[in-house]
Amino acid sequence: MLAEDLARKVLEFADNRKAGDEPMPTGVAGLDLVRQRAPSEIYPVVYQPIFCLVLQGAKETYLGSRTVRFARMESLIVGLDLPALARVVEASRQKPYVALALALDMALIRDLAAETDARSFGREPVEAVVSGEADEAVLDAMGRLFALHDKPDAARVLEPLIRKEIHYWLLTARHGGILRELVEKDSHAARIAQAIAVIRRGYASSLRIEDLARAAGMSGSAFHAHFKAITGTTPLQFQKQLRLMEARRLMQAEKLTVASTAFQVGYESPTQFSREYARHFGASPRSDRAKTPAEALI
Questions:
Q1: What angle do CA 67, 71, 74 make, to 5 degrees?
Q2: For residue 226, what pLDDT band results from cuts at 50, 70 and 90?
Q3: Cα(235)–Cα(231) distance, rounded to whole angstroms?
Q4: How far apart, in Å, do the first and last CA atoms of the chain sit?
Q5: Angstrom distance (rounded) from CA 295 to CA 298
Q6: The whole model's pTM is what?
Q7: Distance between CA atoms of residues 170 and 147, nearest Å
Q8: By CB atoms within 10 Å of each CB, which of 44, 80, 134, 157 scores lowest?
Q9: Residue environment code for 37-62, b if the CB has 16+ CB neighbours within 10 A, otherwise e
Q10: CA distance 174 to 153
């Protein structure tokens, strides 16, 4: 299946359902479509493990000083939960940005790794977010998965098989190194994932590098170095971004006051919170509070 054919089918699906420029469920579990008809401003997003196949246009994701670009017939693999910034850089009404995004099942990745020699598929430098060329096998499998959106009887039988196939192609892809590392219990990526889980559970609390390093089974210096190499940021910056993104959600979705939000996400001073919020988002929390919740466009 050509990328152009699948992009046309995805656009027809979106048009038939009068979709806007927000991520839209396809009806297949864990599979969303994204259509963006103009370049976007930079916006914050909290990624979870996900695979994104770009059929048209281009997008960029920013992690600290790193920029990851993914365009037509390229795919993005995100192996860890992490905050980032992103924007669509190539899109128009005549030729929108079009992508399919599939939530990754890490349990399935582990099962597949146990069935094959994942190490034999390469030891590329490991980063939490990486893009690479999407081959015809992945494109074909994603097209078949999307085609199940209006075939519920077939989906019950075929969806698990196609989903497993896609996860296999990602595990063995040249840019699937983060997935191969995560299934190895004592790898640096697996240990950093443990520390990230601690940060996410306690993002509103005071966290010490020593405690996070202990959770990862590393020395403080090794933990800091590997954390930044894999995520593109430091542990404390990572925590701060999580706090600020949750604060934005609380103000826009739940309409909490600025002061209440500051205390709820772990700040002792609303003034400091407002200063860091404005620096991160480019707008004061008070002005952002009046907006509707921002959608994260994968």
A1: 100
A2: very high
A3: 9
A4: 23
A5: 9
A6: 0.88
A7: 20
A8: 157
A9: beeeeeebbebebbbbbbbbbbbbbb
A10: 34
Cβ atoms within 10 Å, residue 278: 15
Q: Spell out the SS3 assignment of the chain.
A: CCHHHHHHHHHHHHHHCCCCCCCEECCCCCEEEEEECCCCCCEEEEECCEEEEEEECEEEEEECCEEEEEECCEEEEECCCEEEEEEEEECCCCCCEEEEEEECCHHHHHHHHHHCCHHHHCCCCCCCEEEEECCHHHHHHHHHHHHHHHCHHHHHHHHHHHHHHHHHHHHCCCCCHHHHHHCCCCCHHHHHHHHHHHHHHCCCCCCCHHHHHHHHCCCHHHHHHHHHHHHCCCHHHHHHHHHHHHHHHHHHHCCCCHHHHHHHCCCCCHHHHHHHHHHHHCCCHHHHHCCCCCCCCC
CA gap 219, 198 in Å, rounded: 16
Q: How many residues does the chain have?
A: 298
Residue 21 has pLDDT above 90, yes or no: no
Distance (Å, whole) CA 219 – CA 83: 24
Question: Any residues with CB less than 8 A from the CB of 249 and at least 6 apart, and which?
Answer: 293
Report the mean per-residue pLDDT for the chain.
90
Dihedral of alpha carbons 45, 231, 97, 7, sign: negative
Euclidean distance between CA atoms 264 and 53, whole angstroms: 36
> 70 vs 75, 130, 194, 298, CA distance in Å?
6, 9, 28, 11
Alpha-carbon distance 184 to 190, whole Å? 7
Cα–Cα distance measured from residue 17 to residue 271, given in angstroms and rounded to the nearest whole number: 44
